[in-house]
Amino acid sequence: MSEREQDQCCQAADELYAEAGEWKINTGEETIHAKRMSGKFRTLKWLAASTWLIFFFGPYMRWNDSQAILFDIPGRQYHIFGLTILPQDVWMLSLVLLFLAILLAVVTTLFGRVYCGFFCFQTIWVDAFTWIEEKLEGAPGKRKKLDKAAWGVDKLWIKARKHLAWLVISVLTGVSFVAWFTDVFQLWADYLTLSASATEWGTLALFTAGTYVLAGFLREQACLWLCPYARIQAVMLDRESLVPTYDFNRGEPRGRLKKGETIEGNGDCIDCNQCVAVCPTGVDIRGGLDEGCITCALCIDACDSVMEKINKPHGLIRYESIDALEGKNVAPLMKRPRVLVYIVIMTLALGGIIYGLLNISGLDIKVLHERQPLYVLLSDGSIQNKYELKILNKTHDKMHVTVTIDGLDGAELVGAEKSFPVRPGKVTPYTVYLRLPRRAMSGQSTPVYFNLEGVEKPELTSRYESMFIGPR
């Protein structure tokens, strides 16, 4: 390294040391004002955060003149782009939850708390709140001084603007949550005219207060003490997991970089504390994996930027496993037994979800056979069975349906000669009778199939197997 380059490195290090004096490890007794630095993981974090825009704007999407996605809990209906899912299809929801739970376990096993660092509601909202705080109050050093300063007109004006912005986001969060469960435009009208229901007002108040307190005040303490995932991750991670890790082989022993001084044996870490400064939970990654680490990888961006300034290679802090740092052989990620088991479960769950979606119909029929009596002998010698049809219309429109039978030669269906009207989103019951000449009976019971078909939409069909019962 030339003398000029050495001077530049030392000057950059001096600036970092001057700033490092303001930072210390988080122990929860004061607010953590994390430094913001650009880098690939910061960019990735913002891209991941942008997915939460769906939460805010999703309810405003329209489909066939109605809300595209609506979870109508009072009506026990879930509308997703024209597809209506009713409680009878709740098994698919169980598979979705199973898939997401296993996916979380797989990601945590492979890469640590990636969900926490990039997608978690709390993490994203804290990032947004602190971004507003930095715009109004300045860099971390200025914010700390402002917090300690005596109250005055200037401080009150700055703080009032910040908290107003926080409250606006919190209120919009509450409204957006409620909007997934009722028509969003009617909801705004109800709120603005003060005619919303007690449930709507209560949910809005709960989410507004929760967002405001958790993201504005508790911040990293919610991750450290309230969220159970920090503890659960301990049983998911192992020594082969790829997580942000400090390369102690390369970095130790640490030594401050001084002009004109070269200490033999020192590692690449110059103890600038920038990795701690950018950490939203105040963790020192150099001490090893910590339960407070949310795997946001911002410490990697910070360390790489410092390495550039002092002409050292990137990667002092990087995604790496403990075993790899210790020089042990590490199995490929996708060949680890636990990961393979997770993937098999996820595949089965996903297959069930796809099967359910492909086979879900706008019409459904259930047939209940009358048990008292099981059959009746008519005066003409024929046998009659009574059935109650439960016809479910999963569409938004009133329809007419026809019911036919097959599988029972010679049987007559009585009571279904004309089409039935069925209400949208409701179960409509009808009673029908099956009559069969006694000579046509081949046994005490015979399978019979009821076929349902929409008149206005012939592509909507359903089929149900029941039994026709006669004497021995």
Percent range for helical residues? 40-55%
Residue-averaged pLDDT, rounded?
87
Count of alpha and pi helical runs:
17
> In percent, how much strand structure appears in the residues?
15-25%
The shape, in one word, is: elongated
User: Are there runs of 5+ residues with pLDDT below 50, and where?
Assistant: none
Strand count, sense and barrel status of the largest sheet are: 5 strands, antiparallel
Instruction: Round the Cα radius of gyration to an integer and report it.
Output: 33 Å
Number of DSSP E strands: 16
Q: Could you tell me how far the N terminus lies from the C terminus, measured between alpha carbons in angstroms?
A: 102 Å
Structural class: alpha+beta
Transmembrane segments: 43-61, 90-111, 164-181, 201-218, 339-358
GO molecular function: 4 iron, 4 sulfur cluster binding; metal ion binding
Domain 4Fe-4S ferredoxin-type: 259-288
Organism: Candidatus Thiopontia autotrophica
Question: What's the SSE blueprint?
Answer:
Layout: H1 3-20, H2 40-49, H3 53-57, E1 62-63, E2 66-67, E3 69-72, E4 77-80, E5 83-85, H4 90-111, H5 114-118, H6 121-137, H7 140-148, H8 153-179, H9 184-192, H10 198-218, H11 220-226, H12 229-236, E6 243-246, H13 248-251, H14 274-277, H15 298-309, E7 317-320, H16 322-325, H17 337-359, E8 363-369, E9 376-377, E10 382-393, E11 399-406, E12 412-414, E13 420-422, E14 427-437, E15 445-454, E16 461-469
Antiparallel strand pairs: 1-2, 3-4, 4-5, 6-7, 8-10, 9-10, 10-14, 11-13, 11-15, 12-14, 15-16
Helix pairs in contact: 4-17, 6-8, 6-10, 8-9, 8-10
